[in-house]
Amino acid sequence: MNPLVPFIYARIPGIILQAVITLDLRAPWNVAACAGVLYACWICGQHAKTGIIFIDYSIGMEFAITAMDAIHLTLLVRPLHVFRQLKQTESADKLSWFERFTWAADLCGSPRGVGWHHQVKLPEETTKSRKEFVLARLMRAAKHYVWFDLGLFYMKHNPVFKSPAAFASQTNFVHRFLGCFVYVGTNYCMVNVVHALIVAVVVSCTSAETSSWPNIFGKWEDTYTIRRFWGRTWQQFLRRFLAPFGKKTASFLGFKPGTSGSAYTQLFTGFFVSAITHAGGDAMTNPSRIGVSCPFFIIQAFIITFEDMVIAAAQRAGIKETKWTRVLGYVWVASWFIVTATQWNTVISVAGVENGGLLIPFQYFPPSLCDILLKLSV
């Protein structure tokens, strides 16, 4: 199979959804259209498997995100009337069909709402000129590629990553944590490298505004609580439909906006919907293990609630935020994810290798710079 085929199949439901948005359908036709998009996700998912665990999980997530977007954008709101770009002067339903289609493509292609009135809070940029912006992105790509190469070197020389059975049978928690940390960190760096290079090319070769291309992830120094990790540091690609689902649920239960009942209903609903969405990655990785990701995301809502209670109690006791409370916060967050994220990554990897998936497709990566330097030094 051509390696591009799975990615082509992954885009088809999204294109169908964009076309559906342009039609501005009402009941019952919007229900039928939503069902059609969900069916397209299911059919295309049968042809999008690559056999590489992290790619299959990502593709499964894309199908699940499209499905959630379909429910949100066809059943809960009328996008042409609700959403508006910052520079938009008239309602999108007044545009021609082709203009509505490109408008819908921009809407679906910007899950964080960059350039729209519903834009989420994004990392602030300190660079001013386009040249500074491009150079900053190139430096970001180079920095993350160095870390990516170090991770790749470690995995190439660790027998655990060469044998699915060896990875799945690890019992030592420290070894398992280190393996998962390097595995996830390498994927994180790879995403940053690819994104930074694409942004550098787009901004340097087109008239695209630098403000339209923020970093995928926020600042790690903001992560001194678990709430801040999910709300500021981690990418916000699910926020567009998580927030409406949460608000609809809180309203249905009778909680007024701004109350604690509303806030925590939105919190638990958001992580529950996120868990369902990540189950799409499970399904693509191993259909017999759907749901192995869910506990990791659902438990985040409970621990954030507990964290809020502890912080509130500390504030009532007169404890103020200082450098040292933040240090304690960093230790707390790191400890939490060392335990929970390691378990999450392990169950996904085990599910993948049980289904014949590859942990790391070494044959598709360039030669490690560390290997080259090691050979030159001998």
From TrEMBL:
Gene Ontology BP terms: lipid metabolic process
Taxonomic superkingdom: Eukaryota
One GO location term (cellular component): membrane
Keywords: Membrane, Transferase, Transmembrane, Transmembrane helix
Keyword Membrane part of the UniProt annotation: yes
Location of this chain's protein in the cell: Membrane
Membrane topology per record: Multi-pass membrane protein
Principal cellular location given in the protein's record: membrane
Record-annotated Wax synthase domain positions: 213-298
Pfam family for this entry, one: MBOAT_2
Single GO MF descriptor: O-acyltransferase activity
PANTHER family per the UniProt record, alphabetical: ACETYLTRANSFERASE SIRH, LONG-CHAIN-ALCOHOL O-FATTY-ACYLTRANSFERASE 3-RELATED
Family note: Belongs to the wax synthase family.
Protein name from the UniProt record: Wax synthase domain-containing protein
Native organism: Rhizopogon vinicolor AM-OR11-026
